[in-house]
Amino acid sequence: MNSGNLNKDSLAIMLLCSNLALNYKIDKIKPFTAIEWSKFAKILLNSSIKRPANLFNLSKEDLKEQLFINDDECDRIIALLSKAGQLSFEINNLKNFGINIITRADKEFPKVLKEKLKDKCPPVIYYCGDISILDNKLIGVVGSRNIDTYGLEFTKKIAHKIVKEGYSLVSGGARGADSISQEEVLLTGGKVAAFIADSMITKIKKREIREAVMSNNLLLMSAINPKSGFTVYSAMDRNKYIYCLSDITVVVSSDYNKGGTWAGATENLKNNWVPIVVRYEENIPKGNNELIKLGGIKLEASNFELPFKEYKIEDKNVEKPYYEYNLLSLVNNERAVSKNIADNDSKIKKENETIDIDRKNICNIDKNNYDVYVLIVDKIKEALKIGLSLDEFREKFHVNKKQASDWLNRAVEDGVVKKMNKPVKYKTI
Protein backbone atom coordinates (compact mmCIF):
# COMPACT_ATOMS: atom_id res chain seq x y z
CA MET A 1 0.00 0.00 0.00
CA ASN A 2 1.34 3.44 -0.81
CA SER A 3 0.00 6.85 0.04
CA GLY A 4 -1.32 7.29 -3.47
CA ASN A 5 -4.04 4.64 -3.17
CA LEU A 6 -5.04 5.23 0.45
CA ASN A 7 -8.63 6.24 0.98
CA LYS A 8 -8.91 9.32 3.13
CA ASP A 9 -10.79 7.54 5.90
CA SER A 10 -7.90 5.11 6.31
CA LEU A 11 -5.38 7.92 6.16
CA ALA A 12 -7.17 9.80 8.93
CA ILE A 13 -7.35 6.69 11.13
CA MET A 14 -3.64 5.99 10.62
CA LEU A 15 -2.73 9.55 11.55
CA LEU A 16 -4.95 9.55 14.63
CA CYS A 17 -4.26 6.01 15.86
CA SER A 18 -0.67 5.13 14.94
CA ASN A 19 2.71 6.56 15.91
CA LEU A 20 4.21 6.02 12.46
CA ALA A 21 4.55 9.71 11.70
CA LEU A 22 5.55 10.83 15.19
CA ASN A 23 9.00 11.73 16.47
CA TYR A 24 8.81 11.52 20.25
CA LYS A 25 11.95 13.66 20.64
CA ILE A 26 9.96 16.51 19.14
CA ASP A 27 6.26 15.58 19.20
CA LYS A 28 4.51 15.54 22.56
CA ILE A 29 1.19 14.26 21.23
CA LYS A 30 0.02 10.70 21.64
CA PRO A 31 -2.10 8.75 19.15
CA PHE A 32 -5.51 7.42 20.13
CA THR A 33 -5.64 4.05 21.82
CA ALA A 34 -8.16 1.48 20.55
CA ILE A 35 -10.67 2.39 23.26
CA GLU A 36 -10.12 6.12 22.81
CA TRP A 37 -10.66 5.79 19.07
CA SER A 38 -13.85 3.78 19.55
CA LYS A 39 -15.30 6.41 21.85
CA PHE A 40 -14.23 9.27 19.59
CA ALA A 41 -15.57 7.52 16.49
CA LYS A 42 -18.99 7.12 18.12
CA ILE A 43 -19.07 10.86 18.71
CA LEU A 44 -17.87 11.40 15.13
CA LEU A 45 -20.54 9.08 13.72
CA ASN A 46 -23.27 10.95 15.60
CA SER A 47 -22.05 14.37 14.48
CA SER A 48 -22.48 16.16 11.17
CA ILE A 49 -18.88 15.22 10.29
CA LYS A 50 -19.71 11.48 10.12
CA ARG A 51 -16.48 10.15 8.59
CA PRO A 52 -12.79 10.40 9.55
CA ALA A 53 -12.00 11.74 6.07
CA ASN A 54 -14.10 14.81 6.81
CA LEU A 55 -11.82 15.83 9.69
CA PHE A 56 -9.17 17.12 7.32
CA ASN A 57 -9.04 20.91 6.95
CA LEU A 58 -11.49 21.56 9.80
CA SER A 59 -10.53 24.37 12.13
CA LYS A 60 -10.35 24.11 15.89
CA GLU A 61 -13.58 26.05 16.11
CA ASP A 62 -15.26 23.62 13.69
CA LEU A 63 -14.20 20.64 15.80
CA LYS A 64 -15.39 22.22 19.03
CA GLU A 65 -18.72 23.23 17.55
CA GLN A 66 -19.51 19.92 15.87
CA LEU A 67 -17.94 17.38 18.22
CA PHE A 68 -18.36 19.10 21.59
CA ILE A 69 -14.78 18.32 22.66
CA ASN A 70 -12.40 20.51 24.61
CA ASP A 71 -9.45 22.61 23.42
CA ASP A 72 -6.84 20.00 24.27
CA GLU A 73 -8.55 17.28 22.25
CA CYS A 74 -9.04 19.65 19.31
CA ASP A 75 -5.35 20.55 19.39
CA ARG A 76 -4.44 16.86 19.59
CA ILE A 77 -6.54 15.96 16.54
CA ILE A 78 -5.22 18.86 14.46
CA ALA A 79 -1.62 18.09 15.40
CA LEU A 80 -1.97 14.39 14.53
CA LEU A 81 -3.67 15.09 11.21
CA SER A 82 -0.93 17.58 10.29
CA LYS A 83 1.57 14.70 9.98
CA ALA A 84 0.18 13.47 6.65
CA GLY A 85 3.37 14.27 4.75
CA GLN A 86 5.58 12.34 7.15
CA LEU A 87 3.09 9.46 7.22
CA SER A 88 3.27 9.18 3.43
CA PHE A 89 7.05 8.86 3.68
CA GLU A 90 6.79 6.17 6.39
CA ILE A 91 4.16 4.19 4.47
CA ASN A 92 6.40 4.05 1.43
CA ASN A 93 9.34 2.96 3.59
CA LEU A 94 7.26 0.08 4.97
CA LYS A 95 6.17 -0.81 1.45
CA ASN A 96 9.84 -1.36 0.59
CA PHE A 97 9.86 -4.11 3.23
CA GLY A 98 6.64 -5.57 1.87
CA ILE A 99 4.61 -4.28 4.83
CA ASN A 100 1.08 -3.03 4.26
CA ILE A 101 -1.46 -1.33 6.52
CA ILE A 102 -5.19 -1.79 6.96
CA THR A 103 -7.59 0.08 9.21
CA ARG A 104 -11.14 -0.45 10.37
CA ALA A 105 -12.16 1.55 7.32
CA ASP A 106 -10.80 -1.07 4.89
CA LYS A 107 -12.85 -3.98 3.58
CA GLU A 108 -9.84 -6.29 4.06
CA PHE A 109 -9.83 -5.67 7.81
CA PRO A 110 -10.71 -8.91 9.66
CA LYS A 111 -14.41 -8.55 10.37
CA VAL A 112 -14.25 -11.14 13.14
CA LEU A 113 -12.05 -8.80 15.22
CA LYS A 114 -14.66 -6.07 14.92
CA GLU A 115 -17.45 -8.43 15.88
CA LYS A 116 -15.77 -9.99 18.90
CA LEU A 117 -13.60 -7.18 20.29
CA LYS A 118 -15.84 -4.21 19.48
CA ASP A 119 -14.30 -1.11 21.12
CA LYS A 120 -11.08 -3.03 21.91
CA CYS A 121 -10.52 -3.86 18.26
CA PRO A 122 -7.24 -2.36 17.01
CA PRO A 123 -7.85 0.62 14.68
CA VAL A 124 -4.73 -0.20 12.64
CA ILE A 125 -3.11 -3.50 11.66
CA TYR A 126 0.24 -3.89 9.88
CA TYR A 127 0.76 -7.00 7.79
CA CYS A 128 3.23 -8.69 5.48
CA GLY A 129 2.20 -11.60 3.29
CA ASP A 130 -0.99 -13.00 1.84
CA ILE A 131 -3.85 -11.57 3.90
CA SER A 132 -6.30 -13.98 2.27
CA ILE A 133 -4.91 -16.63 4.66
CA LEU A 134 -7.35 -15.11 7.15
CA ASP A 135 -10.18 -16.43 4.97
CA ASN A 136 -9.13 -20.00 5.83
CA LYS A 137 -10.40 -21.97 8.80
CA LEU A 138 -7.90 -21.20 11.55
CA ILE A 139 -6.76 -23.10 14.63
CA GLY A 140 -4.83 -21.16 17.29
CA VAL A 141 -1.94 -22.68 19.21
CA VAL A 142 -0.54 -21.02 22.35
CA GLY A 143 1.72 -22.08 25.17
CA SER A 144 4.50 -21.18 27.53
CA ARG A 145 7.87 -20.24 26.08
CA ASN A 146 9.68 -22.90 28.08
CA ILE A 147 8.29 -26.12 26.67
CA ASP A 148 9.23 -29.62 27.88
CA THR A 149 9.64 -32.78 25.80
CA TYR A 150 6.00 -33.81 26.26
CA GLY A 151 4.76 -30.38 25.20
CA LEU A 152 7.12 -30.38 22.22
CA GLU A 153 5.82 -33.69 20.88
CA PHE A 154 2.21 -32.65 21.50
CA THR A 155 2.76 -29.39 19.59
CA LYS A 156 4.19 -31.21 16.58
CA LYS A 157 1.22 -33.60 16.56
CA ILE A 158 -1.19 -30.66 16.70
CA ALA A 159 0.59 -28.96 13.80
CA HIS A 160 0.22 -32.07 11.64
CA LYS A 161 -3.43 -32.43 12.69
CA ILE A 162 -4.10 -28.81 11.64
CA VAL A 163 -2.74 -29.38 8.14
CA LYS A 164 -4.31 -32.83 7.76
CA GLU A 165 -7.80 -31.50 8.56
CA GLY A 166 -7.50 -28.59 6.15
CA TYR A 167 -6.99 -25.78 8.65
CA SER A 168 -4.38 -23.06 8.81
CA LEU A 169 -2.56 -22.00 11.97
CA VAL A 170 -2.82 -18.72 13.85
CA SER A 171 -0.18 -18.10 16.50
CA GLY A 172 1.88 -15.40 18.16
CA GLY A 173 5.20 -16.46 16.65
CA ALA A 174 6.88 -16.43 20.07
CA ARG A 175 9.49 -18.87 21.31
CA GLY A 176 8.06 -22.21 22.47
CA ALA A 177 4.72 -23.67 21.37
CA ASP A 178 3.99 -20.76 19.01
CA SER A 179 7.15 -20.97 16.92
CA ILE A 180 7.33 -24.78 17.01
CA SER A 181 3.77 -25.12 15.69
CA GLN A 182 4.50 -22.47 13.07
CA GLU A 183 7.65 -24.22 11.82
CA GLU A 184 5.94 -27.61 11.76
CA VAL A 185 2.86 -26.38 9.87
CA LEU A 186 5.05 -24.69 7.26
CA LEU A 187 7.23 -27.80 6.89
CA THR A 188 4.07 -29.88 6.40
CA GLY A 189 2.86 -27.61 3.60
CA GLY A 190 0.30 -25.65 5.59
CA LYS A 191 -0.29 -21.93 5.98
CA VAL A 192 0.25 -19.71 9.02
CA ALA A 193 -1.06 -16.34 10.22
CA ALA A 194 1.28 -15.05 12.96
CA PHE A 195 0.12 -12.10 15.06
CA ILE A 196 3.43 -10.90 16.49
CA ALA A 197 4.33 -8.59 19.37
CA ASP A 198 7.82 -7.51 18.31
CA SER A 199 9.50 -5.84 15.33
CA MET A 200 8.03 -7.00 12.04
CA ILE A 201 10.95 -5.50 10.16
CA THR A 202 13.39 -7.59 12.20
CA LYS A 203 11.31 -10.73 11.60
CA ILE A 204 11.25 -10.20 7.84
CA LYS A 205 15.04 -10.03 7.72
CA LYS A 206 15.23 -13.69 8.74
CA ARG A 207 15.68 -15.83 5.66
CA GLU A 208 13.21 -18.57 6.59
CA ILE A 209 10.53 -16.00 7.43
CA ARG A 210 11.11 -14.07 4.24
CA GLU A 211 10.92 -17.20 2.12
CA ALA A 212 7.70 -18.36 3.79
CA VAL A 213 6.13 -14.94 3.24
CA MET A 214 7.22 -14.81 -0.41
CA SER A 215 5.78 -18.27 -1.03
CA ASN A 216 2.41 -17.03 0.31
CA ASN A 217 2.44 -19.53 3.17
CA LEU A 218 3.07 -17.09 6.02
CA LEU A 219 1.19 -13.94 6.97
CA LEU A 220 2.72 -11.67 9.60
CA MET A 221 0.44 -9.24 11.43
CA SER A 222 0.89 -6.73 14.22
CA ALA A 223 -1.01 -3.95 15.95
CA ILE A 224 2.23 -2.09 16.78
CA ASN A 225 4.64 -0.05 14.69
CA PRO A 226 6.75 -2.52 12.64
CA LYS A 227 9.90 -0.80 13.89
CA SER A 228 8.95 -1.23 17.56
CA GLY A 229 10.57 -3.89 19.70
CA PHE A 230 8.99 -6.37 22.07
CA THR A 231 7.08 -5.17 25.12
CA VAL A 232 5.17 -7.21 27.68
CA TYR A 233 2.10 -5.05 27.06
CA SER A 234 2.06 -5.75 23.31
CA ALA A 235 2.56 -9.47 23.97
CA MET A 236 -0.40 -9.55 26.37
CA ASP A 237 -2.48 -7.42 24.04
CA ARG A 238 -2.01 -9.63 20.99
CA ASN A 239 -3.30 -12.72 22.88
CA LYS A 240 -6.89 -11.72 22.24
CA TYR A 241 -6.25 -11.36 18.51
CA ILE A 242 -5.03 -14.96 18.28
CA TYR A 243 -8.15 -16.25 20.02
CA CYS A 244 -10.58 -14.09 18.08
CA LEU A 245 -9.10 -15.01 14.69
CA SER A 246 -9.28 -18.76 15.38
CA ASP A 247 -12.19 -21.21 15.32
CA ILE A 248 -10.61 -23.07 18.24
CA THR A 249 -7.43 -22.39 20.21
CA VAL A 250 -5.25 -25.16 21.62
CA VAL A 251 -3.38 -24.51 24.88
CA VAL A 252 -0.23 -26.63 25.01
CA SER A 253 1.17 -25.57 28.38
CA SER A 254 0.22 -22.87 30.86
CA ASP A 255 1.54 -21.72 34.20
CA TYR A 256 -1.07 -21.30 36.90
CA ASN A 257 -2.33 -17.79 37.57
CA LYS A 258 0.61 -16.09 35.87
CA GLY A 259 2.14 -15.52 32.47
CA GLY A 260 0.76 -14.58 29.07
CA THR A 261 -0.72 -17.98 28.22
CA TRP A 262 -2.78 -18.06 31.43
CA ALA A 263 -3.87 -14.43 31.00
CA GLY A 264 -4.92 -14.96 27.38
CA ALA A 265 -6.77 -18.20 28.05
CA THR A 266 -8.71 -16.86 31.02
CA GLU A 267 -9.56 -13.67 29.12
CA ASN A 268 -10.94 -15.82 26.32
CA LEU A 269 -12.97 -17.96 28.72
CA LYS A 270 -14.36 -14.84 30.36
CA ASN A 271 -15.42 -13.35 27.03
CA ASN A 272 -16.43 -16.67 25.44
CA TRP A 273 -14.75 -15.81 22.13
CA VAL A 274 -13.87 -19.34 21.05
CA PRO A 275 -13.63 -22.84 22.61
CA ILE A 276 -10.20 -23.67 24.03
CA VAL A 277 -8.81 -27.18 23.92
CA VAL A 278 -6.24 -27.93 26.63
CA ARG A 279 -3.53 -30.61 26.53
CA TYR A 280 -4.32 -33.25 29.14
CA GLU A 281 -1.86 -36.03 29.94
CA GLU A 282 0.74 -36.91 32.55
CA ASN A 283 3.25 -34.25 33.56
CA ILE A 284 1.14 -31.29 32.41
CA PRO A 285 1.58 -27.95 34.21
CA LYS A 286 -0.90 -27.00 36.94
CA GLY A 287 -2.25 -24.23 34.73
CA ASN A 288 -3.59 -26.79 32.24
CA ASN A 289 -5.65 -28.54 34.92
CA GLU A 290 -6.98 -25.24 36.24
CA LEU A 291 -7.98 -24.06 32.75
CA ILE A 292 -9.95 -27.28 32.28
CA LYS A 293 -11.75 -26.59 35.56
CA LEU A 294 -12.60 -23.11 34.27
CA GLY A 295 -14.16 -24.46 31.08
CA GLY A 296 -11.34 -25.62 28.82
CA ILE A 297 -11.94 -28.85 26.90
CA LYS A 298 -9.59 -31.77 27.51
CA LEU A 299 -7.54 -33.02 24.60
CA GLU A 300 -6.27 -36.41 25.66
CA ALA A 301 -3.63 -38.42 23.80
CA SER A 302 -6.07 -41.34 23.67
CA ASN A 303 -8.62 -39.17 21.87
CA PHE A 304 -6.26 -37.33 19.52
CA GLU A 305 -8.05 -38.44 16.36
CA LEU A 306 -11.25 -36.57 17.24
CA PRO A 307 -11.65 -33.93 14.48
CA PHE A 308 -11.35 -30.27 15.42
CA LYS A 309 -14.87 -29.63 14.16
CA GLU A 310 -16.19 -31.79 17.00
CA TYR A 311 -14.81 -29.27 19.50
CA LYS A 312 -16.43 -26.31 17.76
CA ILE A 313 -19.40 -24.91 19.65
CA GLU A 314 -22.03 -23.50 17.35
CA ASP A 315 -22.72 -19.80 17.81
CA LYS A 316 -26.20 -19.48 19.29
CA ASN A 317 -26.18 -15.67 19.23
CA VAL A 318 -29.17 -14.57 17.16
CA GLU A 319 -28.32 -10.86 17.30
CA LYS A 320 -26.87 -10.85 13.81
CA PRO A 321 -25.94 -9.57 11.29
CA TYR A 322 -23.34 -7.43 12.98
CA TYR A 323 -24.22 -3.79 12.47
CA GLU A 324 -21.50 -1.89 10.64
CA TYR A 325 -22.70 1.58 9.69
CA ASN A 326 -20.55 3.08 6.93
CA LEU A 327 -17.09 1.92 7.96
CA LEU A 328 -16.48 2.30 11.66
CA SER A 329 -18.00 -0.87 13.16
CA LEU A 330 -18.18 0.88 16.47
CA VAL A 331 -21.69 0.41 17.73
CA ASN A 332 -22.72 -2.14 20.33
CA ASN A 333 -24.88 -5.15 19.63
CA GLU A 334 -27.97 -3.49 21.03
CA ARG A 335 -27.73 -1.31 17.91
CA ALA A 336 -27.07 -4.34 15.73
CA VAL A 337 -30.62 -5.44 15.07
CA SER A 338 -31.50 -3.24 12.08
CA LYS A 339 -32.52 -5.35 9.10
CA ASN A 340 -31.65 -2.97 6.30
CA ILE A 341 -29.95 0.32 5.52
CA ALA A 342 -33.17 2.30 5.70
CA ASP A 343 -33.81 1.07 9.23
CA ASN A 344 -30.22 1.82 10.18
CA ASP A 345 -30.33 5.35 8.82
CA SER A 346 -33.62 6.00 10.60
CA LYS A 347 -32.15 4.75 13.87
CA ILE A 348 -29.02 6.88 13.50
CA LYS A 349 -31.19 9.94 12.85
CA LYS A 350 -33.21 9.34 16.00
CA GLU A 351 -30.04 8.81 18.04
CA ASN A 352 -28.56 12.04 16.70
CA GLU A 353 -31.68 13.91 17.82
CA THR A 354 -31.41 12.35 21.27
CA ILE A 355 -27.72 13.17 21.59
CA ASP A 356 -28.31 16.78 20.53
CA ILE A 357 -30.86 17.13 23.32
CA ASP A 358 -28.62 15.38 25.85
CA ARG A 359 -25.62 17.59 25.09
CA LYS A 360 -27.71 20.67 25.84
CA ASN A 361 -28.82 19.31 29.19
CA ILE A 362 -26.34 16.79 30.57
CA CYS A 363 -27.96 16.81 34.02
CA ASN A 364 -31.07 15.21 32.56
CA ILE A 365 -29.28 12.36 30.78
CA ASP A 366 -30.15 8.82 31.77
CA LYS A 367 -27.42 7.74 34.17
CA ASN A 368 -27.06 4.41 32.34
CA ASN A 369 -26.51 5.98 28.89
CA TYR A 370 -23.11 4.88 27.56
CA ASP A 371 -22.41 8.30 26.03
CA VAL A 372 -22.77 10.20 29.31
CA TYR A 373 -19.25 9.28 30.36
CA VAL A 374 -17.88 10.31 26.96
CA LEU A 375 -19.51 13.69 27.29
CA ILE A 376 -18.31 14.44 30.81
CA VAL A 377 -14.91 12.74 30.95
CA ASP A 378 -13.19 16.12 30.63
CA LYS A 379 -15.14 17.41 33.61
CA ILE A 380 -14.09 14.31 35.55
CA LYS A 381 -10.41 14.92 34.73
CA GLU A 382 -10.74 18.54 35.76
CA ALA A 383 -12.41 17.68 39.07
CA LEU A 384 -9.80 15.05 39.93
CA LYS A 385 -6.77 17.27 39.46
CA ILE A 386 -6.73 17.81 43.24
CA GLY A 387 -7.58 14.17 44.04
CA LEU A 388 -10.93 13.08 45.47
CA SER A 389 -12.25 10.09 47.39
CA LEU A 390 -15.19 8.12 46.02
CA ASP A 391 -17.61 9.90 48.35
CA GLU A 392 -16.18 13.33 47.54
CA PHE A 393 -16.47 12.58 43.82
CA ARG A 394 -20.04 11.32 44.25
CA GLU A 395 -21.10 14.45 46.08
CA LYS A 396 -19.43 16.73 43.56
CA PHE A 397 -21.26 15.15 40.62
CA HIS A 398 -24.51 14.51 42.49
CA VAL A 399 -24.71 10.84 41.52
CA ASN A 400 -25.18 7.64 43.48
CA LYS A 401 -22.24 5.58 44.69
CA LYS A 402 -22.56 2.89 42.02
CA GLN A 403 -22.57 5.43 39.19
CA ALA A 404 -19.62 7.28 40.68
CA SER A 405 -17.69 4.02 41.02
CA ASP A 406 -18.47 3.04 37.41
CA TRP A 407 -17.21 6.37 36.07
CA LEU A 408 -14.04 6.26 38.15
CA ASN A 409 -13.27 2.68 37.15
CA ARG A 410 -13.70 3.56 33.49
CA ALA A 411 -11.42 6.58 33.87
CA VAL A 412 -8.78 4.37 35.48
CA GLU A 413 -9.17 1.76 32.72
CA ASP A 414 -8.79 4.48 30.07
CA GLY A 415 -5.55 5.62 31.67
CA VAL A 416 -6.68 9.19 32.38
CA VAL A 417 -7.05 8.73 36.14
CA LYS A 418 -5.01 6.80 38.70
CA LYS A 419 -6.20 5.23 41.94
CA MET A 420 -4.06 6.06 44.97
CA ASN A 421 -4.02 4.15 48.25
CA LYS A 422 -3.62 5.25 51.89
CA PRO A 423 -6.01 7.02 51.72
CA VAL A 424 -7.88 5.81 48.67
CA LYS A 425 -8.25 8.71 46.25
CA TYR A 426 -8.57 9.20 42.51
CA LYS A 427 -6.41 11.73 40.73
CA THR A 428 -5.95 12.85 37.13
CA ILE A 429 -2.77 11.53 35.53
From TrEMBL:
Q: Which InterPro entries match?
A: DprA (IPR003488), DrpA_SLOG (IPR057666)
**Top-rank taxon:** Bacteria
One Pfam family of this chain: DNA_processg_A
Domain named Smf/DprA SLOG is located at 101-295
Family listed: Belongs to the DprA/Smf family.
Name-wise, this protein is: DNA-processing protein DprA
Q: Which organism is it from?
A: Clostridium weizhouense
